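User: Quick sanity check before I run a bigger batch. Here is a single chain. Can you write out its predicted 3D structure?
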Amino acid sequence: MKKVLVFLLALIAISCGKEQRDLVVKTNVKGLKKGTVYLKKAKDTVLVTVDSIVVNGTPQFELYSDLDSPEVFFLYLDKNSKIEDRITFFADKGVTEINTTVKNFAFDAKIKGSEQQKVLEEYLAVLSKLNNKNLDLIKENFEAQKAGDTAKINQIEKQYKASIRRKYLYTVNFAVNHSNSEVAPYLALTEAYNANINLLDTINNALTPKVKTSKYGKALDKFIKDIKEESKTED
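Assistant: Done. Predicted structure follows.
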């Protein structure tokens, strides 16, 4: 009986000794033999490192962070060269798994974790197509300028403005349709921050109470209030 009691007390001591972290990022970087990996997040206007690990022969590792509400994190790989790769992901409390390769660190990343990450990936899939269209227009504009084709340049400029407007409208529509996700205010702050204030208000007013009290929900509300205050002083 005494042995059992001692064993139980030992287990309790071990469990208490382990620091419980809100977020665990389990990572596997195929082909990584040496380098430093950093887990970062935005604080105010700068990126801060919340955890890091020096990899020396083992491509599987874990990184940790505290987390009050769902938030975007960045996984940086420093391969001891001038090139620094970065993976962006939306994390919630619990485990996020990231599998990638050292050769194409960001491009090959497969992320499994939060519901917010799934929503973000859904948005980015469409945004990628819109961005590709904009790149095509930029290329066409360059060729038109070389040829001195003023009519073509004006036409492309109109198309580009229309494309930017489509992006804003898509972002607003997506955010409103996902108003129960912390991704909604995040997109407003990162993809539509210079959109018309009425569009930002539309997103903010659609947010659920839970999302409104999240990190990005509070930030969006403050951002909109600051813009309105600036408008008053200008008037």
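The two ends are 80 Å apart (CA to CA).

User: Great, the batch can go ahead then.
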